[in-house]
Every structure is written in C-alpha cells, then in structure tokens.
Specification:
The complex is a heterodimer of chains A (476) and B (889).
Chain A (H helix, E strand, L loop, with lengths): L8 H5 L13 H12 L8 E6 L5 H4 L17 E8 L10 H8 L17 H9 L12 E5 L27 H9 L11 H22 L7 H23 L1 H5 L24 E4 H20 L5 E6 L6 E9 L2 E7 H5 L9 H5 L8 H22 L9 H4 L1 E6 L9 H4 L5 E4 L9 E8 H11 L22
Parallel strand pairs in A: 1-5, 1-8, 2-10, 3-5, 4-6
Antiparallel strand pairs in A: 2-9, 6-7, 8-9
Helix pairs in contact in A: 5-16, 6-10, 7-8, 10-13
Chain B lengths: L7 H17 L7 E5 L8 E2 L11 E3 L5 E4 L2 E4 L5 E3 L4 H10 L2 E9 L8 E9 L2 E9 L2 E6 L12 E2 L10 E7 L4 E6 L2 E7 L12 E4 L11 E9 L5 H10 L15 H17 L18 H4 L18 H7 L12 H12 L27 E2 L2 H12 L4 H7 L20 H16 L3 H6 L9 H15 L6 H16 L4 H14 L1 H4 E2 L4 E2 L3 E3 L2 H12 L6 H8 L6 H11 L4 H13 L20 H21 L12 E4 L1 H8 L14 E4 L13 H4 L8 H11 L25 H10 L1 H10 L29 E3 L8 E3 L2 H10 L1 H16 L8 H13 L4 H9 L2 H4 E3 L1 E2 L13
Parallel strand pairs in B: 19-26
Antiparallel strand pairs in B: 1-16, 2-3, 3-6, 4-5, 5-16, 6-15, 7-12, 7-16, 8-9, 8-15, 9-10, 10-11, 12-13, 13-14, 17-18, 20-25, 21-22, 23-24
Helix pairs in contact in B: 4-7, 10-14, 12-13, 13-14, 16-17, 18-29, 19-20, 24-25, 27-28, 28-29
The chains are: A alpha/beta (476), B alpha+beta (889).
C-alpha cells in the first residue's frame, strides 16, 4: 500500500479553520484499498449524481478555474467541465425556477407534480440497464444522501429517480442515518442469539418474502405502478435479510462504530416555513465533510454503486456566518443577514443570486459558490485517493456527474435561468474526455442520453419523439 | 356556479349502473363479472349487461337452433351461444379471486340429456375446462378445475338423483377460496363438498359457451332466462336474495352505451389542450381578444376578426389558423405536432363540445402518468390505528419513533405515490411486529378464532382462516395458509409451544403486504370494475376512521351486506358515530393547513421579540378546537369554517393577537377558552387564525397568502411566467405598505397578468402581520385597509368587499369554495390528487353532500357510496409494465 493510497486520518479528522470532523476512525478505512483491489480486474460500473444548490451563473463559469471553480483545479485532469448545457425544457410544466431546474438536474425532464420527477435520473437508467438482475447481495441498491434544509418539494434535494419519477431511495440526511443505511447490520435478535430462534425468524421472513414475491409476480392483482412499489419493498427486504443473517458476523467482529449525532437541525425543524435558518460555516462544513466521508467510504467499500449526494437544496435558504479561507488566504466573511440588512428569508444567501448582475463584482455570491465547490472537491478528492485494480482511482473509474439548478441565478428570465447550467463529469474509466473545459452547446437531454449510451445503457431519457442529437465530442 | 359538468363518457357508464340500481336492492351486483338476461328478442348476439369492464357478448352459432323472446332464450339443440374470443376477463377475475358464483335461471327440456349436457361452460374443449355447469340426467353436475383436480374438473360436485326437474329452476354453484363448493337449488342448499387447490392453472384461452360444449358435442336443450357469473362466493343470504328477485329481475336493462369516440376525443385530447395552453388568457375574466374558450357558447361565437371555431371548417376557424401558424399560445412554446393534429381532427369532425365548462383546475393532475394507481401504504398514523384496531396493542410511541416520517406531496402526507419504502421501514416493521406480539397473549387472541389449540393441519387451518381474514382484512388464499402453516411447523420442529407459533404467525402477518398496504385488485381489461366487498369495507374504514374495518364491517363484507347503496349507507352512518371519525377529520385539517409546520417556526427575534414557541402550539390548538366546534359540535356545513364567529384562545394567544407582550406567568401549557366573536369583526373564520396567517412568513407575504386562498379555497390555477418574461420582483419602496407593494406588482406589465388573480385575495388580511397580530397601522405608519375585490375562478367580474368579515362571508357562501373543500376532503380520503377523469364523480358526490347539509358526515357518506370508492380503474395485461425496479436474485 503506497502512501498515496492510504487514507489520511488527519484528512478526515481535520476540517476547515481547525474544526475537528467528528467521524470516528473506521478500521475499514484502512483496508478500503485492499477491498477495492480485491474486486479483481473487473471494475464495476458506478454512477453518482452530485448536486449543489443555487448554481453558478453562466458568466462566472467563463472564468474557468480562476474564479469560483478554483477548488476544482487540482482535479482538472480528471474532470470534463461542460458549459452551455441547457435545461430549458424543464420549465414546461414549471412551478418554480429552483424546483424546475433541480428536477431537471440528472433527469433533463420537467417535474411531474410536487414530489415526482419527470423521469429517471442518469444513475438509475444505468443501474437498471447494467444490473437488470439487481445489485450483488449486501449492497445498497441506491444510496441517496445529503445536507440540506429547505424541503418544500422533494426534487429540491433528492437526485435519484425511478423511471416513473418516484424517488429511487429515501434521502439519508443525517450522517448517522447514512452510516446505518450503509453499514448497519440489522440486529434481529439482540437478546437471544441461539440458533433455534434464528431458525424461526428465518421462517417468518421466508413467508414475508413469499408474499411480496407473489405481489410482484405474474399472478399479482396489482397494476404496474403498485407492482413497482411492492417490488421496491421486496428489494429492501432482501437487503434486510442479507444484513440480518449473512452479515451478522460483522456485528460480532466489532464493525465500525456510529458517527456522532448531527448538531444540525433536520426534518421539519430545518425548514421553518421557508424562512431560512442561521448556521455557521463551521457547522455546515463539519456536517458536509462527515457526509462526504461516509458516502465515499460506502463507495470504497463497494456498498454503493449508484445514488446521489446533495450539497444544499435547490433555492436553499441559510443565513451563513463565519470567515471563509481557501489556500491560505481569506476569501471573505460570511454574514448574510447583516450584509443584506434583512431578516428571515430576505436575509438569506439565496438573495445574492437574485441580486446577481454581470457588471458587478457579486462578491458574496462568488464566495458562496466558491465555498460549495471546495466541498464538492473535498468529496471528489476523497474518491481519488483509492486505487483500483486497473491502477486508476475510484474517481477516474466512476461516472460522477456534478450539476446544479441554475445557469444564471436570476429568475427574471427562464431561458437564461435554465441555460448554461453548470455540469462536470468524470472520465468513467476512459469513456469521457477529461482535462478540458468544453462549451457543449447542447440540450441537457442530449448530453445525458449521450452519457448513458457511453455507459452501455440503451434506454433513453425524455420523450421518444424528438429531434435527438448525439453529443460525441464529450466521448473519449 | 357549478363548474364540473358530468361528461357524456361518464354518463354512459353511469347509465348502465343507474339502470342496475333499482335492482340493486333485489339482485346482488357486487362481484358480478358477466350477466345475460336475454332481453332482446331478435338477432344473433346475446349481450353481456353486467356493466363490469369490456362486455363479453355471445354469438348464437346456429340461429335456427334457438327461439328468442324477450327475457328468454330457448335452445333446441345443434347450436351453441359462444364468445367469439377467449373470455379472458372472466377467467382472470376468477383465477385471481379463487372464488366463483355461477347462477342460472333455467327450464330444462327433459331429464334424459346427459354427458353432462352443457348449460354453461368456460372451457377450451370437452376435456379441458375451467368450470362447467351441466345436466346429467336428473341431476346437476358442476366441474370446477383447480390445481387438485384433473384438467377436466373431475371430481365434480353433483346434486342428488331426481333433484332436477323440467320446472323453472334457480341453480347456483358457489366456491369459496378455501375450496368449499355448494349448489343451491331455488335458494336452498342442495349439495356441498370440498374442491381443494387453487385456480392458478385456469386457462385464459377458454371460451364462454351456453347450451353446448366448445366443439358442439354436448348440446343442452331447454330455456335460459338468466345466466350470471360472479368472481366471488355469494353467501347463502345473497343466493336467497337473487332467488327471491326472480327470473325476470334483470329484465329491463339496456345494453351498455359505448361512449361516442368524438366525445372521448374532445374530453381526453382537446379539453386538456385548451385548459393547459389557452384558457389562462382566454377565460371569462381575462378574455384576451374578447375570447373566452372555457364555454362552448363563447368559444364558438363570432369575434370582430373571425370565428374561433367553426365546426367542420378548418379554414374558417380562427383558432386553427393562429395555432397552426404558431401565433398562439402567445409568448409561449407552440403546440406540438400531435396536439395540432388532435385539434385539426376535432374541428374537422364537427368540434363536438361535451363539457359545460373547461375548468383548468381539473387538468392540473391530468396526463403524465397521473392516471396510474399506486398501492396505498399505511402512513405512520394509519399503521398505529390499524394495529390498535386489529390486535388491541397501542404501538403509537414506538411507531412514531422507529418508522420514518411520511412526507408531504400535493398538500397531504398520505399521497400514495410518495409513500415509498426504505430499509428503515423494513427494519421498523420487523421490530414493531416483535414488540406488538410481546404485548399480546397470542393464545388468548387465538381463542376468538378457534377452539382447538393444536399443531395439526386441520386445527391450524381452522385458526388461520378466520385469524388471517381478520388481520389481513380479507380471506386468505390457499398459498397463504400454506405459508403461515410453515411457520407453525418451524416452531413445532424446535419444540415450540402453540402460543409461540401463533405469535410468530402474527408477526409474519404484521409484515405482510396485505397488512402494510391496502392491496386491491387492479388488473382487468382497462375499464373500471366494481371492487369486492372486503376491498370496499377496507376503503370505507380507512376513509372514515383511518384504520382497519371493525368486526361488524367485516361481517357485512363476508355476508354480502355491502352489496347495495342502502347497506353501505347504513354501515357508514354507524361508523360515523365512532369517535375515531373525529380524529380522522382532525387529521385532514392538520394536513390540509400543514399545521405540522408550526413548531418549526423561527420568526426573526429582532422583529418579533415577544414571540414564544408555545404560541405556535396555541395556534394549532385554536384551529383544531375551532374545526371540532364547527364540524362536530355545531354540525355545520364545511363552508362555515370560513366565517364561524367563534374561536378558542389561550390567554397567551389572545395577548399575542392583540399585540401585547406575554405575561411572565404565560410560559407553560395553557387551556384554550371558547370566545364568541360575534362582536369582534376582526376575527372569525379559518383565515383569521394565526396558524394560517403565518404561512406568509415574517413579511406577511401577500403572494403566499393570496396563493394559499387561490389554490386551497378557490382551486384556481396560475402558471409560471412564460420564458423571456422579466419576473424580477418589484422591490418594495421603503415605507410602502404590503398592499402598496402588491399593487406595484399588479400594475407591472410583466407581473400583473397573474398577480392580479391572487394577490388581491390577501388584501382582506392586510391588517394581520406575519405572526397574525392585528394592527391598524404598519410599522411605517401606513394606515392599513381591509377592503378589496375577489375574483372567483370562472366568473367574469370580481366581487367587492368592504372588510375582512365581508370577505369571509363571501368565501363561506361561495359555491366554488364549497366545491374546493369537497375536492380537498376527497383527495385526503382517497390518498391521491384528483384529475379530470374524477371530476364528474366528484361533482356527483358534492351535490349529494350539499343536498344533505354539506357537513363532514354528509360528504363522507356521499363519498363512500360513490363510484369513486365502489369502482376501481383496472389495467389490462397489455398495459402491464415491468416493475421499475429490478429484484435482487
């Protein structure tokens, strides 16, 4: 194991401004390269969507790595930055520019109601095509996690969708929940571990599985949407079964301990009526990095191959405070409410996007966007540290699509708002070009379908009848 | 103004049901799959008049072999009456249920015909059948195929010798899912035996034939007066009821009307185009270019520059001209090729306009897969209530802690499509099942279902059947009995006790899809089918109580006492007296007004230094107490929620409303007291509650408040601004009142077109600040007003009001508001947003409820007796898609 391949505990434990990251040291972190390498020469297909809220105005994207994209610069050889990707079709049944744009991220289709996307997301198209029989036992079929506060509509923060537009997996918004989802063995029997009890328990589970199988089979009385829902339930039961019985040893062998309890607000308390919350930079980045570490660990341990990670909701409303440093220099002091001389929703960082003007400095917007890029880069860098059997990192071997909701940041023009939405992808094991900033000048749907095609998926996103265009210039 | 017109499509299907209704009191219709009453006295076709799904009409193969008269078909041999194609709908329905009732009124020609001679058969050929009712000399013989019989349905069930005569006879064969079969003659039991196995091997290529076998080699001679087949086992009482109704009971029916394809085209293709692309600008109030496309009279009327729609004449139709040339919709994407083709066809075909009015609100949830039906998972609260009702265990604390919370979608947390499942659910269901059983004595629980507590197959089956029916809200299939029996065998094999076995079986049932979901049959031929009695009982109990059926309701389902409207109404009346009904209705107001958000309020401490978190709880208490007072204590119509002059305030909330700082002693819980508001014009009605007023945030947003009124009370529709329109909010000038800022937005060319529709709806609330405190002046010193105008959707002109009280009275009296409340309660009750195809049924329910006082009980009664609850849309096998998620191997 080379030094490069080791995961620095310090990296994990230290956050910005000396803030200690609360992730406990996991033994599995040290063995993750071995686990990854053991997978053999066959590099698994993986696809993850990384979403960040509020976007990067198109004019700022033209500044390349000299502007808000600076934190991505160390990874530039492993990324294809795509500019001029338009999501304008997402306004077709629009409700709200944030909501429409966010729903379009990774689906390129307009939302279908409050809690449904217009179709499948990139990761799910690939998952269904390449793993038609399901993922290997013990894996989380789709891992959806993230840190966000505003939650009035699901597609503000969930970014993995089934083909019927329903969410592909439940959002894990607390680090402990994400941890439990990935590593938690289900303790079916805390008090009486004898074989007799296990045997009966297995019998109970067998009958439950049989029932769910019946309702997903040919004789099921259910319609297709209901059947899909029950199939989803069955899939979770299979996973439960795996954890309850096959992975029981993990509990006995002292598996990783749970991360600490999140200090942030979650659930309804995190979104007081759309009015926004007060939060410090340290609180926010501590949680983000903990989530990024756990999510990356899930990928390194091959417990997750598909899903999405969210860095703030679309149209997020926070009143951020704290000094922001990067690369040894102070970028700015965040103090949204005071700097805007407003309270409630009007005092949130969200307002900097409303106030964006091309001919102004837009310093606060830039600082916020720069800071988010730093956190996205942290996650990507984490994936770049583990080498796989082909000598490349997980980052290089996976399809990581990074996108957001807005191309401009202003809602006064839907076309401008949803044109030129920031996108970046990784090479996905030499399927796509990297090391470039490319003006793609294409509709999101064509770009996404070109991506899924390159990943080996035949199914396409969006309406069947439309003038389609292959975006070959992104392919390696 | 009533805006939902019953569509002819719906009228056609209702027609057949309505014609059935006079008979419903006599003949059983629930579970009916095919019905032949031989009403026509001529022709070669015998019509299926069941009204259930696509009709299975029969053809007389040799007309010379029959004699037709009104209400009778005499078969004289060498002929048969057969379906042209395999009777798949019939086969599938019985295959799925495992139950059947085959009923016939007949008069055999003589007692010598044998073979058996086929009276009614569902078969592929003479050796390969699903079921056959035959005559074998002087007795009846029924062959029913199961996995335990031969493909010929042998061994059969026969009546005694000499039980068959040449008199008019009512013969009924029934089979329970468990295998018990019976023959009733003239309403009395005549034979009985078990035919074990299930119907999974039924052959869907079978034809339905009367009076012969498929190949024509087993003719039966005699007269048929009625043949009916049900997909369920009719109880003895139901068989007796049908016997009592007589042979001619079904006569007088007319064959089901097929909907006019032009009407279908208009209602499913054209109306959505007009609703979604045109009427925003061309309705009664906006009527740009003096054009109103919501009604036929105005849509077809000549304008200065031409006539919008000229039936049959594309060239003269202005609408076509501007749409074809992409001039309309203005400032928006042009219509697609398919939409243009639909419009062209419609005008060329005569521009049939079958709706009274096009209401865009009906189309918000139409299209884009909105007709899909997701199986309903229990919400956390429903799970708790179901466990309590089923096994008597209070699991509330643990369930609320362990189960993931349900999330809001389309305004409610019980929206089926959003009730997905996570690993955490699976873990929680398993853990909760264990906790629930640990709090029961399974042996005592089992006593109510079976006396013998032994592991033998016979005793265990005797327990499982009734216990499973109770816990899983309907009879078990054979495979289920085998599965649960497997658990008891596992327990027995490790020397476990009977009590342990029952406990584990209950645990398995509590995790079964039939417990966690409300499983219903959704398969059919693509049309609407009646649901079965257990499904109906379950729908009723969750609508009324949010919990599973009680014993009385289950008994009614089992004994066929939910077969007609009178019986359903009787049950509903009984159920509405249960206190759980009130809690269920509180669940509605809590979700509708999103009262769950109140504890999360964090108003700016600088602007609202006197705010205390307890005030939010007081606001919730005010609204819930008020709702109970108006709806349940005073039993007033739901519309009165908008202006009833009473409320319930804690001293702390009363202080807050008056803008006074809280007293020191006001920190803990306080009791809400009833306040008469008849002399307080500033308060009265839901919209003056803090729980609603705080929706607008600290700034008392007129946009948010106005949109709330528009969407939740008026069912108005406002779309997003078109691309390219500058929608930057007009920044409020310092010192401007909220009304002043709103008027700026309304006056703005880009914003005003839409904002004028909803911001004035909040003008009457201007005197309440962001936290609901009443002021005469704002903090800039502006005198606040409460007068304004309200534009009800569909009306051409706004109605003025002078003060808040007048606005509340207008809303309370508005038919549109009454309709909206009906829509909201129904959406909550059935767990899905409503679309245009639901509109006619909703209108019917609304009218029935208003006729009976417009109260909650009146509305719920109208709902549970409606087609929305008694029928279900089905998917044909062709429509079946692969589940969207693959399964692990």
């Amino acid at each position: 194991m080379t030094k490069k391949n080791e995961i620095s505990r310090r990296t994990i434990l230290r956050g910005l401004s000396g803030a200690a990251i609360g992730l406990p040291f996991l033994e599995e972190m040290l063995v993750c390269n071995a686990v990854a390498a053991k997978a053999g020469a066959q590099i698994p297909v993986r696809a993850f969507n990384v979403f960040f809220g509020l976007g990067i105005p198109k004019p700022l994207q033209t500044e390349g790595f000299e502007g808000v994209l600076e934190p991505l610069k160390p990874l530039r050889d492993k990324l294809l930055i795509m500019r001029e990707v338009d999501q304008v079709r997402c306004d077709e049944s629009g409700i709200n520019a944030h909501f429409d744009g966010a729903s379009g991220a990774f689906t390129a289709t307009p939302p279908n109601g409050e809690a449904k996307a217009g179709g499948a997301s990139l990761d799910q198209v690939i998952r269904r095509e390449l793993y038609p029989g399901g993922l290997p036992a013990g894996m989380v079929p789709t891992l959806v996690g993230g840190t966000f506060f505003r939650r009035s509509r699901v597609s503000r923060y969930v970014h993995s969708y089934n083909s019927d537009g329903t969410v592909a997996a439940t959002m894990q918004e607390k680090p402990r929940d994400l941890f439990q989802r990935v590593f938690g063995a289900v303790a079916i029997d805390d008090r009486d571990p004898d074989a007799r009890r296990d045997r009966i328990k297995q019998s109970v589970l067998d009958s439950v599985v049989d029932e769910y199988r019946y309702y997903t089979g040919n004789n099921s009385p259910l319609g297709s949407a209901s059947k899909a829902r029950v199939a989803e339930h069955l899939e979770r039961i299979r996973e439960y079964e795996q954890r309850a019985f096959s992975m029981k040893h993990q509990k006995d062998s002292g598996g990783p301990p749970r991360p600490p309890r999140s200090a942030l607000r979650h659930g309804g308390a995190a979104d007081p009526g759309g009015q926004g919350i007060d939060i410090t930079l340290e609180e926010l980045t501590t949680e983000w990095r903990l989530m990024a570490d756990l999510y990356a660990l899930a990928i390194e341990m091959d417990r997750a191959r598909f899903g999405s990670l969210t860095f703030l909701a679309a149209g997020e409303r926070i009143r951020l405070t704290g000094d922001y440093h990067y690369g040894g220099r102070k970028i700015c002091t965040f103090d949204d409410a005071r700097q805007q001389n407003a309270s409630g929703d009007k005092g949130c960082s969200h307002e900097w996007w409303h106030k964006f003007k091309e001919d102004k400095k837009n310093e606060q917007l830039r600082a916020h966007a720069h800071m988010k890029m730093r956190e996205v880069a942290y996650f990507l860098t984490r994936l770049d540290k583990t080498r796989e059997a082909n000598g490349k990192s997980i980052l290089q071997n996976s399809l990581i699509t990074i996108s957001t909701e807005s191309g401009d940041g202003r809602h006064n023009n839907v076309k401008r708002e949803l044109s030129g939405v920031f996108h970046a992808i990784t090479g996905a094991n030499d399927r796509f070009k990297t090391g470039q900033i490319m003006d793609v000048r294409a509709e999101g749907l064509d770009v996404y379908n070109s991506i899924t095609a390159a990943m080996g998926a035949k199914a396409e996103l969006g309406p069947k009848k439309r003038d389609k265009r292959k975006i070959d210039q992104i392919r390696a | 103004m009533m805006r939902i017109a019953p569509s002819p499509i719906w009228r056609a299907s209702l027609a057949s049901l309505a014609l059935l209704s006079p008979l419903a009191a006599q003949r059983v219709t629930n579970g009916l799959v095919v019905l032949y009453d031989f009403d026509s006295s001529s022709g070669n076709i015998v019509r299926d008049r069941s009204g259930a799904g696509q009709p299975i009409d029969l053809q007389i193969t040799e007309p010379k072999g029959v004699l037709r008269s009104k209400g009778a078909l005499e078969l004289r041999g060498k002929t048969s009456v057969s379906s042209k194609k395999p009777a798949k709908r019939l086969t599938e329905a019985i295959k799925r249920s495992g139950e059947i009732t085959l009923e016939a009124w007949i008069k055999p020609a003589h007692t010598e015909q044998a073979g058996p001679a086929r009276l009614v058969t569902l078969s592929r050929n003479s050796g390969h059948r699903n079921v056959t009712l035959g005559q074998d000399g002087d007795h009846y013989d029924v062959r029913f195929r199961s996995t335990k019989t031969s493909t010929n349905g042998i061994p059969s069930l026969a009546t005694k010798d000499r039980s068959l005569s040449t008199e008019l006879t009512h013969v009924v064969y029934t089979r329970e899912r468990s295998g018990k079969t019976r023959i009733h003659l003239n309403g009395r039991p005549a034979a009985e035996k078990d035919v074990p196995g299930d119907t999974s091997n039924w052959d869907s290529s079978s034809l339905l034939v009367l009076g012969n076998e498929v190949e024509g080699i087993r003719p039966w001679k005699g007269t048929l007066y009625l043949v009916a087949i049900y997909s369920r086992d009719l109880s003895s009482a139901e068989v007796a009821a049908n016997f009592k109704a007589g042979a001619g009971a079904a006569s007088g029916l007319v064959a089901r009307e097929e909907p006019d394809p032009k009407v279908v085209h208009f209602e499913t293709r054209i109306a959505p185009i007009l609703a979604n692309h045109c009427v925003e600008c061309h309705d009664a109030s906006t009527h740009k270019g003096k054009l109103d496309l919501t009604r036929k009279a105005t849509a077809f009327a000549a304008l200065e520059n031409g006539t919008p729609i000229v039936p049959g004449n594309l060239d003269q139709s202005l609408l076509w001209d501007v749409v074809f040339n992409d001039e309309m919709p203005e400032d928006n994407d042009p219509l697609g090729m398919q939409q243009k083709a639909d419009l062209k066809k419609w005008i060329e075909d005569g521009a049939i306009w079958s709706l009274e009015e096009i209401d865009p609100a009906n189309y918000v949830h139409s299209g884009g897969g909105s007709d899909q039906r997701w199986v309903q998972r229990h919400t956390v609260e429903e799970y708790i209530a179901t466990v309590k009702a089923t096994v008597g265990v209070d699991i509330a604390a643990e369930a609320r802690q362990i189960l993931p919370p349900d999330l809001r979608a389309d305004g409610f947390t019980n929206t089926a499509y959003n009730l997905s499942v996570d690993l955490k659910h699976i873990d929680a269901y398993a853990r909760l099942a264990e906790i629930i059983v640990s709090r029961m004595d399974p042996e005592i629980f089992a006593r109510q279902f079976a006396r013998n507590h032994r592991f033998t197959d016979k005793d265990m089956e005797a327990l499982l059947k009734p216990m499973g029916t109770w816990i899983l809200r309907g009879p078990l299939e054979a495979r289920e009995i085998i599965a649960y029996r497997g658990i008891s065998t596992s327990v027995a094999s490790v020397s476990g006790s009977f009590k342990e076995a029952v406990g584990y079986m209950i645990q398995a049932m509590l995790q079964s899809p039939r417990f966690i979901y409300r499983i219903e049959n959704q398969r059919g031929d693509g049309s609407s089918w009646p649901i079965d009695s257990y499904e109906l009982a379950t729908r009723m109990s969750y609508i009324i109580w949010g919990a599973s059926p009680d014993k009385e309701l289950m008994r009614a389902a089992r004994e066929g006492n939910l077969s007609n409207l009178a019986q359903i109404e009787l049950q509903a009346a009984r159920m509405l007296k249960d206190p759980r009904t009130i809690e269920r209705s509180v669940g509605f107001i809590t979700q509708w007004l999103n009262l769950g958000r109140l504890p999360n309020m964090r108003p700016s401490p600088e602007r609202f230094p006197n705010w205390k978190a307890q005030i939010a709880e007081d606001m919730r208490t005010e609204t819930v107490s008020y709702f109970k007072e108006v709806v349940w204590t005073q039993e007033r119509p739901l519309g009165d929620l908008l202006n009833a002059q009473v409320t319930f305030l804690t001293p702390r909330l009363a202080n807050h409303y008056r803008g006074r700082p809280p007293q020191r002693t006001q920190g803990g819980p306080q009791r809400a007291e009833r306040h008469d508001l008849t002399t307080n014009p500033a308060r009265g009605g839901l919209l003056t509650h803090g729980s609603v007023l705080t929706m607008g945030g600290d700034d008392a947003s007129m946009v948010t408040r106005g949109l709330f009124v528009m969407h939740n009370l008026l069912r108005g529709v406002v779309k997003d601004p078109p691309a390219g329109v500058d929608t930057t909010p007009v920044p409020p000038r310092p010192g401007l009142s909220h009304r002043g800022a709103a008027q700026k937005r309304i006056a703005d060319r880009s914003c005003g077109g839409c904002h004028i529709k909803f911001e004035p709806l909040a003008f009457g609330l201007e005197k309440y600040d962001g936290l609901g405190t009443y002021f005469e002046k704002d903090h800039h010193g502006n005198t606040l007003r409460e007068d304004g105008e309200i534009l009800f959707p569909g009306e051409a002109n706004p109605t003025p009001f002078q003060n808040t009280g007048e606005l509340m009275d207008l809303l309370a009296k508005s038919k549109r508001v009454h309709e909206s409340l009906t829509w909201k309660v129904i959406q909550f009750s059935i767990g899905r947003p409503l679309g245009s195809t639901d509109a006619p049924a909703v209108l019917k329910i609304h009218k029935a409820a208003r006729k009976n006082g417009g109260t909650w009980p009146a509305l719920i009664k109208a709902l549970v007796t409606s087609d929305l609850v008694r029928m279900t849309p089905t998917e044909s096998t062709k429509q079946q898609l692969r589940p969207s998620l693959p399964l692990n191997p």
